[in-house]
Structure formats: structure tokens, C-alpha cells
Write a structure and sequence with these properties.
11 helices; globular
């Protein structure tokens, strides 16, 4: 029985739970280590994202026989130029729209309250079943608004922390680009034979998974932001740039991102002109249909191959466990774990096949 897969899998889960339990009991011992991890986590995360975005350029420059240090310096210069252009051209516009939005927020909420009051005043003219459905919808909207407000506050706090930690990002990025070819040999030196080959293959698959997700997701989010911006400009929606950038940022969250993106746009549209609510909904629907049916399948392909129901379950669970960072990192973390499990399964199947042939 000890050789059965289900038995070994169950023992592994039990041991993992025991380790987690023991870690919680003695977590005070690891408090200094946790402080170090919390300090470097965000800079390493941002540097990792930039690493996968800039590595193709560095590899291309290396292929043109540029020295490694010059390739990295060129990439850093390009990054600096892009950030400078964004801060110089887009920054003032975003700041202006943000200031106006903050000033007009009370008026927008007042308009939303008037709309809700109007609906509630018409309850006598509606069937009881319709009124119950409306009340349930309003209760859900209120709960979503409260959750969205909490999420937005946490998101802004995370952005502030990111701004503080931004100084460390270039250092991590430099060494990631400089020593990118040394990571796999460093890990595989501790293994030999078939295990070494398996580790090399698994690390390669993990690299491809993260590359596909990060490059694909950011590219898709950028295209979504552009489509939203064009659509908002066409209908002359206030704060078009700010709302499009917000939609681009929230789109990094699979499945839930579009719903988070459209919420403030609908509120602005309702306060500006209730008829615009329909147009905003159409713009978001068209953008998401284009993204889900045309862009994502061609950009990310089947590299992740995760069922939508699994995406929802993973995101909701991670959000309850780890908040905003859990929501953002849930899918790539799940993709990494899935890649490791698939490789373990393949290795185990190959061992069984080899044992069968020998018999």
C-alpha cells in the first residue's frame, strides 16, 4: 500500500500540514526572517516582471555581439526613457484628472443615491417579484461597492509601498539580467543523472510559464487600456485617460479585473449622463470579447491552460487568504505549482514505464 500514489500523496499533504502547524507555533523565531522577506518581496517582484519584459531585448543585443554590460546599460537607458516620457507626458494629465475626480466624487455618489432612490420610489408600480429582484441586486451592488472600496484602499497603499521600495528594483533587475544564465546550472549542480535532467526540464518549463503569463498578461492589459481609452474618448466620458489606466491596471487580475475596471467608469457615466452607462457597458463588453476571443488565445496561447472555474476558485481563495497580493499572484502561483505537478507526474510515469519494460 505504501507504493500507491494516493497513499504517498496523502502522506505528503499530512506532512505539509504538520510543517505549517509547527511553523505557526514557532513563528516568533522566524520574525526577523519574515521582516527581511517582506522588505525585499515587492522589489524582487517588480524586478522579476521587468526581467521578463527586458530579457528579449538583452538576448537580442547579445546576439548582435554587444558586451553583456553594454546590453544591460542600453536596456536600463531605454527603461529610463520610457518612464521619463510617461511621467512627463501622461503624468500631468493623470494628476489633473485625479484632482478633478476627487473633487467631484461627492457629486457622483449623490447622483448614484438619487438613482437608487428613484428606483425605490417606483416599487409600488412594479410586481413584487421584480421588486425583490431589484432589492437583491441593490444589496449585492452595495456589498460589492464596500468590497471594492476596501480593495481600492489596499491597492493605493500597495502602490505607495511600491514607490518607497522602487529604489531597490534597479539593483535586483541588474543582477537578474547579468546572472540570468547562471541560475539553472547553480540549481542543477546538486543533482545527477535523470534527476538533473528532470530539474533542468522543470526549470525550463517554469521559465516558459512565467514568461508567457507576464509578457502576455501585460500586453493584453495594455491593449485593453488602449481600447477603453479610445471608446471613452468617442463617447466623451470624463476622466477617460484615468479610467482607461485603471482598467489597464485591474486587467492583470484574471476574470475579476474587468468587473473592477468598469465599476468606477459606470459611476462616472451615471453622474455625467445616465445614458452613458449603456455606452460604457457596451465598450467594456466589446473590449472583453475582443480580448477573450482574439487577443489572449493568440498572445498567451495554451501555456497556462487553466479552466475559468479554477481561476475563479483560486482567486477568491487567495484573496481571502492574502488580500490584494493574493488576488494578483494567485494565477501565476497556481500555474507554477501546476507545472511542477505535471512534471512530477510525467517523471513518475516514465519510471513506471521503464520498470515495466525491464520486467
Amino acid at each position: 500500500m505504501t507504493h500507491k500514489t494516493w497513499f504517498q500523496f496523502g502522506i505528503g499533504i499530512i506532512l505539509l500540514l504538520v510543517i505549517i502547524r509547527m511553523f505557526r507555533e514557532v513563528q516568533d523565531i522566524f520574525y526577523p526572517l519574515m521582516i527581511v522577506i517582506e522588505t525585499v518581496f515587492l522589489p524582487i517582484l517588480l524586478a522579476g516582471v521587468l526581467f521578463y519584459l527586458t530579457r528579449p531585448m538583452v538576448n537580442w543585443l547579445d546576439g548582435k555581439r554587444f558586451p553583456k554590460w553594454s546590453s544591460i546599460l542600453i536596456v536600463f537607458a531605454l527603461l529610463f526613457g520610457v518612464f521619463w516620457m510617461l511621467s512627463t507626458i501622461i503624468g500631468p494629465l493623470v494628476n489633473e484628472q485625479m484632482t478633478k475626480l476627487i473633487k467631484n466624487t461627492p457629486r457622483m455618489f449623490h447622483a448614484a443615491e438619487e438613482g437608487i432612490s428613484y428606483i425605490m420610489n417606483q416599487r409600488e408600480r412594479l410586481p413584487e417579484s421584480a421588486m425583490q429582484a431589484i432589492e437583491e441586486a441593490l444589496n449585492k451592488i452595495q456589498a460589492m461597492a464596500m468590497s471594492f472600496g476596501t480593495w481600492l484602499i489596499n491597492f493605493i497603499q500597495s502602490l505607495l509601498q511600491a514607490t518607497i521600495s522602487i529604489v531597490l528594483v534597479p539593483f535586483f533587475l541588474f543582477y537578474m539580467l547579468k546572472d540570468r544564465e547562471k541560475f539553472t546550472p547553480f540549481i542543477t549542480q546538486f543533482f545527477t543523472g535523470n534527476r538533473k535532467e528532470w530539474v533542468q526540464k522543470t526549470l525550463g518549463d517554469l521559465d516558459n510559464t512565467l514568461k508567457s503569463y507576464i509578457q502576455g498578461q501585460l500586453f493584453v492589459s495594455f491593449l485593453i487600456g488602449v481600447m477603453l481609452f479610445i471608446g471613452y474618448l468617442v463617447i466623451r466620458l470624463d476622466y477617460a485617460l484615468l479610467l482607461a489606466l485603471f482598467g489597464m491596471a485591474t486587467n492583470v487580475i484574471p476574470f475579476l479585473g474587468p468587473y473592477l475596471a468598469v465599476a468606477p467608469a459606470l459611476l462616472v457615466a451615471w453622474a455625467q449622463d445616465p445614458q452613458l452607462v449603456i455606452y460604457v457597458s457596451i465598450i467594456m463588453l466589446v473590449a472583453q470579447q475582443i480580448e477573450s476571443n482574439l487577443i489572449s488565445p493568440n498572445v498567451m496561447g495554451k501555456a497556462l491552460d487553466i479552466h475559468p472555474l479554477t481561476v475563479i476558485t483560486v482567486i477568491l481563495t487567495a484573496g481571502n487568504l492574502a488580500g490584494i497580493w493574493g488576488v494578483i499572484l494567485a494565477i501565476p502561483a497556481y500555474a507554477v505549482i501546476k507545472t511542477i505537478v505535471v512534471n512530477l507526474y510525467d517523471m513518475r510515469r516514465e519510471i513506471k514505464q521503464a520498470a515495466t519494460k525491464n520486467v
